[in-house]
Amino acid sequence: MKKAIFGSAILKRSMKSAIFLSALAAFWTANSQAAPPSIEDLGLEDLVKTDITSVSRKSQSLADVAAAAFVISSEDIRRSGAQALPDVLRMAPGIEVAQIDSGRYAVSARGFNGRFANKLLVLVDGRSIYHPLFSGVMWELDPAPLDDIERIEIIRGAGAVMWGANAVNGVINIITRHSRSQAGGAINVGAGTQGAGNVYARLGRADQSGSSWKLSAQGRHKEPSKQYANRQDSDDRLSNAVVDFRFDRDLNAGRDLSVWANASLSTLDDLWMINPQFRTVTIPGLGPTAVFAGITPIRLRQTTESQSLVGRYRWLSDSGVESSVQLSANRSSIDIDHVIKEERTTFDVDYQSRYSFAAHDLLWGFSHRSSSDDITVPGTATDYLGIDRTAYTQRNSGIFLHDDWTLLPETLKLGLGIRWDHASRNGSYISPNATLLWTPSRSDSIWFKYAEAPRTMARAEQDISVFSSVNVTNSGGLSIPTFIFALPGSRAGLRAERTQGVEIGYRKQFSPALSGDISLYRYRYTDLRGGSLGSLYSCSPAFPGYVAGACPAALQGKAAYYATSQVANELAGWSNGAELSIDWLATPDWRLQLSYSWSQLDMNEYSNTAQQNMARFQEKSTPRHYGSLRSQWNIDTRQQLDLWLRTSGGFERYNAPYTTSIRVPGYVTIDLRYAYRFDRNLEVALIGRNLIGARRFEYISDYISSVATELAPSLMLTTRWAF
Amino acid sequence: MARPLLRRLVHRLALAICLALAIPSTFGEVTSESQLKAAYLVNFLKYVEWPASRSTINICLFGRDSLGPYLAGYEGRQIAGRELRIRKVSSPEQLTDCQELFIPETEEARVGAVLRWVDRQPILTVSDVETFTRDGGAIALIRTDSRLQFDVNHEAIGRAGLKASSQMLRLARQIVGGSR
Q1: What pLDDT is recorded for position A54?
Q2: CB of A579 within 8 A of CB of A156?
Q3: Rg for chain B (alpha carbons), in Å?
Q4: A125 within a domain of the structure (yes/no)
Q5: What average pLDDT score do residues A80-98 get?
Q6: CA A380, A385, A391, A393 torsion: positive or negative?
Q7: Mean pLDDT, rounded, for A357-376
């Protein structure tokens, strides 16, 4: 038995390389005009009776896009076995996903990842879920149940013209299912290790007159994971709920109306490394002195909620102009017990029109967002958190114009676009965009792209002062800490970051079953947020540099230093990278999908030590390589076996809150899913995630220093029942 | 359980190698949804009559093209004595010599506009948008379980000045605006 498995393992390995080689050979020799397959000779009578035997391979529909794009279909989502949206995104090339704890994730495109990665824009049905407080996405809050997502379109690279400011390194468009296709009901239940439980229920109706609605709800729970350092329970118990309603009405003649109502709630605790410990020792010559003894975590409860109401009306004018207007209102809050409470109300207006005539496809639009908040920092938190303005209204407006101009029918298309944005306290920005799409044959396309995009500064970056890190030095056997506080950026006139860059890509359909694309990019970033050390004070009169009252109360009189760091637009650098994706239907019931990304950041050199350290560290904080290989196999009409091999190189993070760095190890891991369909309405699946590899953590949050958690193998059993 | 599965995996890999080595001739065995859609588009041409006869017959693909590679193999074939050509279109002016127009599901939002462009022109409109025939399109390709079927809007075909054969109507899943 053992021998047989061993033998087959060798066989498998050699076969794998054989497959790889022959696939490679196929790549370069394949004639895109395959010999006429038998299906081409079938008549209509036969077609209506033909079973679709292949692993569904919904068209990627991207041959005509002059950008590095990737589409995740609802089936890809289901077959990934992922229970949280960020885990689904791992399959896309150029998208870097790192799990922080049971609910928090760092997700970015083309580098610059972070707990609040700020260069990636995420839209749900056209509405931005980029949070204005942190300028990032709160991934712990489920924007919509995974089962309600129709597809996810990911466009890497700057896309400000069409999508607005902050689409710097990419945009993720989450498109939820039309309520018409969700008529009937469904109940999905899942239970797994780490106390994981999922429930999803949906009810919908569609009538012949063109009206339809659906109501769905999803609940998700997870017990705490283990702390990486000591394997004790962390404090990241997750409880999420989301209720989503959608109504659609087809009004004929190119007009339709859609209304979304969504409410979501997430409670997710955390351990923050913000509690400095001191012990009193008697030092000769100084007497009893409070000496630094490390930082301990404090337990915090984070409750995040959001309610939104969105309406969209699309119409067609007599002259043939297609227009849409979308209005949305959102109320949200983040409440971190004893630390900060933020309440926010946001209104969005988004108008777009499109007119196709002669060789032109013209798009123009206008958007405005007004977001008002009210932030309270209780007295218990003032030692490590402060805010300049407790209430603020951020206003962003933008207009754009874009034309796709067909220079040579079927062969050459030129895209030109321009956008003007104004954001309060960030100023006005012009973002141009130019693309050239060359399709020398029906199965090849090559694109060139030049684009610029601004990244607007978040409310927290502008107005919040926060304990950011502690630098510990040893002096005469004593640990002397310097507590560094980041000062609000608005005091230094912080403005938007700028990006400009070029991309070139090649997409090829080798045969109906094999396609691939490759893209190369080089982007220039300027005015990136950095920080230089400001004043330095001693907190104890016994040390030089003491200024009475300069230190926060908690440090007063202790053997410690207090320093400020002023954030400002001072860093710049180049980012280079390449991405590859291959999609291969190897046999009618077996599909393989490969993605690979390589990226490298080259920041400028600085004479200022703090800037230099930050720039060098930034370069090391992105994995150089990452990729995934997915296999989807329909064993027979009832059984599916899916395997997902994921891998990433290692990178460095600050061992927050300390200023020393720590290596986040690279990994190779496997997810498996086996599903059995009893009939068309009932499916049971067993899902295993992170099944192989050493004990590891994937990320350390440094924006708010928290404890690293272990990513353990997990199992989950799910049932899906439709009625 | 584990052994047979493993053995099947090995078989599968061996099969894949054979297939990979035989690329591209064996791809005919694959019946994917897109291939089936392409086959339908070509077949409809044989069951519909256009008012004026030309030497070529054009299938036009609107917007974000996804079927192009699947249709490439048919290009140049003779359909009812006319040479088949595939074209990509994105504006009304480009539709003049289209006999059949495919609007993919991903362009659903634009169905209304495109149908207005082709109004009363002798163009057979086909889409995989489920409600296409209800919206005034001629033929909708509908995925039902493991098969692909089609709905026909008889009225829309008539308004375009086309004539659908009774055989095609008989094979349709559903007919809107008129009897079989």
Answers
A1: 65
A2: yes
A3: 19
A4: no
A5: 96
A6: negative
A7: 94
**Does the pLDDT value for residue B1 go beyond 50?**
no
Chain B residues touching A34 at Cβ < 8 A: 24-25, 27-28, 73
Residue B10 has pLDDT above 70, yes or no: no
Count of other CB atoms within 10 angstroms of residue A143: 24
* Residue position matching structure tokens 């609107």: B62
Q: What is the pTM of this model?
A: 0.89
Helix (H/G/I), strand (E/B), else coil: A71: strand
| Distance, CA of A463 to CA of A480 (rounded, Å) | 29
Cβ of B65 and A36 within 8 Å?
Answer: no
User: Closest residue of A to B5, CA-based?
Assistant: A635
In-domain check, residue A150: no
Distance CA B50, CA B81 (A): 13
Q: Is the pLDDT of residue A99 over 70?
A: yes
Domain B31-176 CATH assignment equals 3.30.70.120: no
Asked if residue A3 is part of any domain, the answer here is no
Query: Which pair of structure tokens corresponds to residue A552?
Result: 């926060």
* A103: its two tokens: 């609910």
Dump pLDDT digits (tens) for A39-67: 777 888 888 888 776 665 555 556 678 89
Number of folded domains that form chain A? 1
The distance from CA A155 to its chain's CA centroid, rounded to whole angstroms, is 12
Residue B86: which pLDDT band, with cuts at 50, 70 and 90? very high
Both tokens assigned to A537: 């004070």
pLDDT value, residue A44 = 87
In the predicted structure, residue B22 carries a pLDDT above the cut 90: no
Asked if the Cβ–Cβ distance from A356 to B90 is below 8 Å, we say yes
Domain contains A236: yes
Nearest to B91 among A19, A322, A359 (CB): A359
Select the residue of A48, A54, A181 nearest B30 (Cβ to Cβ).
Answer: A54
Q: What CATH number is attached to the domain comprising A705?
A: 2.40.170.20
Which among A314, A356, A588 has CB closest to B92? A356
Please tell me the distance in Å from B98's CA to the nearest CA on chain A: 14
Percent of chain A at pLDDT exceeding 90 = 66
Whether A440 has its CB under 8 Å from any CB of chain B: the answer is no
pLDDT at B27 over 80: no
- Taking contacts as CB-CB distances below 8 angstroms, the residues of chain B near A512 are 27, 30, 32, 34-35, 69-70
Decide if B18 touches A, using CB distance below 8 A: no
Residue A459: closest CA among A370, A411, A517, A393: A393
Per the structure, the complete domain to which residue A434 belongs is given by 182-722
> Does A180 contact chain B (CB < 8 Å)?
yes
Which range, of A9-13, A197-201, A339-343, averages the lowest pLDDT?
A9-13
Average model confidence (pLDDT) across chain A: 89
pLDDT digits (tens, 9 = 90+) for A623-640: 999 999 999 999 988 999
What is the C-alpha to C-alpha distance for residues A279 and A693, in angstroms, rounded to an integer? 40
The shortest CB-CB distance from A316 to any of B70, B104, B112 is to: B112
For residue A534, give the nearest of A571, A489, A569, A484 by alpha carbon. Answer: A484
B78 and chain A in contact, CB less than 8 A: no
**B36·A358 Cβ contact <8 A:** no
Which residue has tokens 């012990």?
A279
| DSSP letter, residue A336 | E
Task: Give the burial string for A540-562 (b: 16+ CB within 10 Å, else e).
Answer: beebeeeeeebbbebbeebbbbb
